[in-house]
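re the bet — no i am not wrong, look at it urself. input seq straight from the record:
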Amino acid sequence: MDLQIALLLGQDGIVNGAVYGLMALALVLVFSVTRVIFIPQGEFVAFGALSMAMLQAGRVPATLWLLLVLAVAVLLVEIWRWKRGAVVDWASALAWCVVLPAAAAALVLLLKPTSMTGQTLTTLLLIMPLGPLLYRLAYRPLADANVLMLLIVSVALHGVLVGLGLLFFGAEGSRTAAFSEARLDIGGIPVGGQSLVVVGVTLLLVIAMFLFFGRSMVGKALRATAINRVGARLSGIPTELSGDLSFALAALIGAVSGLLIAPITTVYYDTGFLIGLKGFVAAIVGGLASYPLALAGALLVGQLEAFASFWASPFKEVLVFTLIIPVLWWRSLHSRHVEDEE
């Protein structure tokens, strides 16, 4: 291996690590707020990429029908809870179940966007509400369950969404048009414009998330819920709405990740699962609690995958997932063991 090959592999590792970093941020966010290890995070990636491909092909994305069915189901559940005497936040319920799905349907069926910007915004509007709708339907009734029960629900939901992906999009993969066709030469190393878009958008999202959690009241409320859910509830923070927002951000991040990688690689209905697992490895490096460590872990995973594909291509996935063993061993030696209820 000479220096030029090493730089090319390092570039691939940075681009891949940026995508895994977004996955890791979403997983840490959801787990810290709701205690859910969200296995289906990768499905948002695949759904976003394949929905964009269908829009560019002039077809109606099948995710629109999934969104509308979930919206109706959640709305019926909220009406049932209200009739049973439960307190229902109708403002947020109508926003997730009526306003956003109606806006997405209007964009897809009536406006039929043809520009890259319009198709991107439409895709994000299609995917983002799926997060809070899935949370309200699958996780909120089990909000007080232990982490293992929530993990079992996540695995089951992943199986359902993968099956729906196969039904909606078929077994064939798709690519989308690139956001940038530029070709640069940096120090003798060819760099694609789409790779720069991936890294740039990731940096912007990371900065926006840190500003959101550090400066805004909503972000501070989410941090309070992550630190102490009971204390946040006693302080007047609506923890159920915190779950909605965390899942909405996770779905948005997943959709953005799908849009970023679709021009680079062919995306299949189950592609997101492997991407989500590598993001999970990065999140484990951060202890499912630290955003900076999760980002560092994502870059490590990206570089390990890139160089392993050169030295031992058949075993690159094995090497990446083996990384989780020494990390868990190290954390088991340096962490205080507590009961789940604590």
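see?? The CA atoms of residues 56 and 114 lie 7 Å apart. told u. also The chain has a mean pLDDT of 87. so pay up
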